[in-house]
Amino acid sequence: MSLADDYRPSDLNSLLLSNEARQAMISWIDSWMNHSEVKNSLILWGQQGIGKTSAAYALASYAGLPVVEMNASEQRNKESMKKIALMASQYRNLFDDDARMPDKLILIDEADNIFESRSRSSGGDTGGMSELLEIIKNTKNPVIITMNDYYSFKSKNNAREIVSRSVEIEMTPYKRKNEVNYKIFTSGVHSVLKNIAIKENIHINDHEIDGIIRSNEPDIRAMINDLYLYSSRENDYGENSRDKSESIYYLTSDTFRGNDYDTIISALYKMDEDTDFYMKWIDENIPYEYTDPVDLKNTYDLISIADIYYGNRFKNFSLASYGMEITAGISVKAKNRNDHYVKYNFPSFIKKMAMRKKNFELYNTINFAGRMGAISHTSTATISGNMWFYHIMKQKDRKLYSFLSTLLGITEKQTHSAK
């Protein structure tokens, strides 16, 4: 059992989600317990690792109901749905005092991975969606359906009617990073990770915890897994990373506010960062440091000249240093200096490129995991959590790995970036 499973939230108050989502879940299950249910099923959707399955089990605990689960590791065709989920949904315990009370909660996990085919030989969950609809129509017990890709699910046969008979809750903890929910989420998950670290005797500081959060947000399960691996792998979140950020930050400040050009140049020749990284920091923060239109024009003109020199470094490599030295004199071009404190920003271009790379890697991981899960009837989350196995296979048995890639219809480039 993984660390994420060991520390799965056991009650609704432990879940890292908005109050609105929590209250909507409670209202839905209360309607069942009070015999006033309007919608027979509850759909929880959102990115993997944010706690959809945990929320289902916490809701069952709140209502005092056992869970009957059917997940993506099981074949979910018409026959198997009838044997397990349909029987559980239509029959209640004969010894219950109130025959109208539900006596179990049915969980259909990762329903977006139900893929139907026309033939049994192709391995699809033949008739699974139509039987899921029948379960929801006729159930005598509450049904929770979880999925990662809500819009992919809606494109399946019978999905729109399933949705119309369900309460839908998006589990995404925040929409944008500048909203209050983001601060609440990061603060909450930081506390969770710190508590786990203390209990598991993992020596990690607050800065390193924040690094794990930033690298995986909003995937809580991935954060916990990274915390577990922290002590046995190269530290990507530690002192070296912090020193580098502080170093470039002070160089940026000295460039804008320093009076001694020679001192600035001396510091630049000692820096670990490359010239392009330094120039992007200066370019990003010019409008925060200078507000006068004439100063803005002059400083941008100067950095444009520096960029021309740096861009021609492939013809003559010595021109790279010219770009750095021209940029270092940017304060000479500004007549009205800012006397107030300025918080410098990380270059947005680099952040966007890093996010694009991260999204590309995430897409390829999900693509690989989805296809592998489809042929092995295993959940996407399970495959994603065991990607290390396929990386080892790639290193140790190229022939088997190539065969698997061909079987899945995935290119070498895609599998390489699915890390």
TrEMBL record:
SMART domains in the record: AAA (SM00382)
Stored SUPFAM superfamilies: P-loop containing nucleoside triphosphate hydrolases
Source organism superkingdom: Archaea
The entry's keywords: DNA replication
Keyword Glycoprotein attributed: no
Gene Ontology biological process terms from the UniProt entry: DNA replication
PANTHER family linked: CHROMOSOME TRANSMISSION FIDELITY FACTOR 18 (PTHR23389), REPLICATION FACTOR C SUBUNIT 1 (PTHR23389:SF6)
The name this protein goes by in its record: AAA+ ATPase domain-containing protein
Organism for this UniProt entry: Ferroplasma acidarmanus Fer1
